[in-house]
Amino acid sequence: MSEQISDRQQRSGGVVERVQEMLPARFRRGAAVVPVVRLAGVIGAVTPLRPGMTLSGVAKMLERAFGTRNAKAVALVINSPGGSPVQSRQIYLRIRQLAAEKKLPVLVFVEDVAASGGYMIACAGDEIYCDPSSILGSIGVVGGSFGFQEAIKKIGIERRLYTAGIHKATLDPFLPENPDDVARLKAIQREIHAIFIALVKQSRGGRLKGAEDELFTGEYWAGETAVGLGLADGIGDLRSTLRARYGEKVLTPVIAPASGMLSGLLGRRAPGAGSLAALDGIAALPDDLISALETRAIWAKFGF
């Protein structure tokens, strides 16, 4: 009788093993899975034709990553020169909320740049790794404009502006710069800067090794120096780091934005919409060109 039971157990075990082999790798028992989400580009809405990274654009990817079966951690690959402080912080908060809810560690891997808002998002990681040539930091706030008042005078244009509210035309580029407007802008920047500094301190804690008057000036550093200052935890790439930690057979499925036939059906336009979209595209070309130049300028600041 015992021999028959043993034989049945062996057959049953063999069936289970065969079923396991038929399953996708990420569903097999014992398989270490670390889903990967790539967060790249300038942060914030740029133009309709050149959307930047926003919480609404990445939320579904993050939720899918943290909801992955058998996940041991979530890896974020970041390549961003920054942008909107609001969107940066909202993405940071969503990552931390999901990490706490799912009780999963977050490992961040910096590619070319994690600067300004990009570094704010990187701080959502429990650990940050980078390449020796990566750029990290730029913990500060920047804003800029142009002054066109002399240019419009030369070509005979008169600026006519009507407002209700004495500060409604603050920093109008077609009017002479007002020192009071600049003072108000700088006060807002200092407030946002303080929020950024507090977030970095809370996230990095005792790992920060540099002096505050060095770390929080808006300066940025290459990977090795950033590690020395405590802005990152080590030099390392995603594949090597995850294999060393979770084994050679660790699975790293990339969580991509939704696409394909279903999204195409959901986004199908009404008859004639194609022609209108083409006209809208032509009208938006000047704005899109300016947006492209601004985006290029942001990347160029960090040598890319």
From TrEMBL:
Enzyme Commission identifier(s): 3.4.21.-
Keyword Hydrolase set for record: yes
Family annotation (CDD domains): S49_Sppa_N_C
GO BP of this protein: proteolysis
Listed InterPro entries: ClpP/crotonase-like_dom_sf (IPR029045), Peptidase_S49 (IPR002142), S49_SppA_C (IPR047272)
Keywords for this protein: Hydrolase, Protease, Serine protease
Domain of life of the native organism: Bacteria
One Pfam assignment: Peptidase_S49
Domain Peptidase S49: 101-242
Gene Ontology MF term list: serine-type peptidase activity
Entry's family note: Belongs to the peptidase S49 family.
Descriptive protein name: Signal peptide peptidase SppA
Organism the protein comes from: Bradyrhizobium ivorense
